[in-house]
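Hi, here's the filled form for the chain we discussed.

Project: internal
Contact: R.S.
Residues: 132
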Amino acid sequence: MVREELHAFSIIPARYEHVPIWRTHGKYRKHMKRGYSKLLYNQRNKDETIMSVIKRLFGEHLMSKLTRTQNRQLSFKCITYNMHRLTNLITLILLSRKPSSRKFTYVTLLLLFLDYNLHANSQQQGRKNKYF
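And the returned structure, exactly as it came back:
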């Protein structure tokens, strides 16, 4: 099961909220009733949107057959998406500045980029994946 191997948890609300936990059948349904977080469930829209954009930009099919290489290919698509967004941000900032103040913009962009990479690396080190 996904819950035991990957320590995943459900963020989907239980269907019948008015039924008490002691009358709910099933170990996982009881966990869903006890551990439901509205904050996490509301983040689902953002995840769905980002996955939709990635599929639209870079295609929805993976060419790899092995799980390990599929995960790697999906990671590369996510990295490409992040670089695409960062490039659009840099272009927007450069075009919105006056030509005389662009020297300060390059320093700002460099700091932004370094902060972004440090944040992404700290998140990747926090999670472990057995396929990489």
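Let me know if anything looks off before we file it.
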